[in-house]
Amino acid sequence: MVIQMDGRNVVVKDVQVQTASSRSGNTLYKVRGRDVVSKQKFEASFKGDEWVQTVDFERRPVQYLYRDADGCTFMDRESYEQYTFDSEALEEELLYLGENLEGIYALVADGMPLGIELPATVVLEITETAPAMKAASASARSKPATLNTGLVVQVPEYLAQGEAIKVNTLTGEFMSRA
């Protein structure tokens, strides 16, 4: 979602909802995001009855091309136009970006790229973890595993190096084998 606050466009990355326990209490919405122009982090709290102005934007399917010193470059799959984002603007998404990742969308308003939207799950390969235990069950303990993008997740003990796994992009948690 993109909202407008004090004349600035803000891409919303996370919303936390706090419901009051009393009858007269208001629900609070804590919003975290990033300013589109200045790339500054944005945090604010809103009561349940407050209005915020949303910004109309377009979701364009894009392909991840490469990463360099300037940032990450994506190509629009329909118009072949290229969008470059600063690495700081995509700091949370970078750990999920891999080659041939399908389902990425660029959020574009008035021809200006605002951010990217990742698919709900991504398939990544385990590059480093403790050796697999043959007697480990699926509900047993977990161990840390480093994936090919640098992301570290907790995985079940039966997984070994070189295996592909599905990771939830919203929570950053292991879901299943790929």
UniProtKB/TrEMBL annotation:
Family per record: Belongs to the elongation factor P family.
GO CC terms in record: cytosol
Highest taxon, organism lineage: Bacteria
Protein name per Swiss-Prot or TrEMBL: Translation elongation factor P (EF-P)
GO BP: peptide biosynthetic process
Domain Translation elongation factor P/YeiP central as annotated: residue spans: 59-114
Pfam families: EFP (PF01132), EFP_N (PF08207), Elong-fact-P_C (PF09285)
InterPro entries: Elong-fact-P_C, NA-bd_OB-fold, Transl_elong_fac_P/YeiP, Transl_elong_KOW-like, Transl_elong_P/YeiP_cen, Transl_elong_P/YeiP_CS
Keywords carried by this UniProt record: Elongation factor, Protein biosynthesis
Domain spans labelled Elongation factor P C-terminal: 122-177
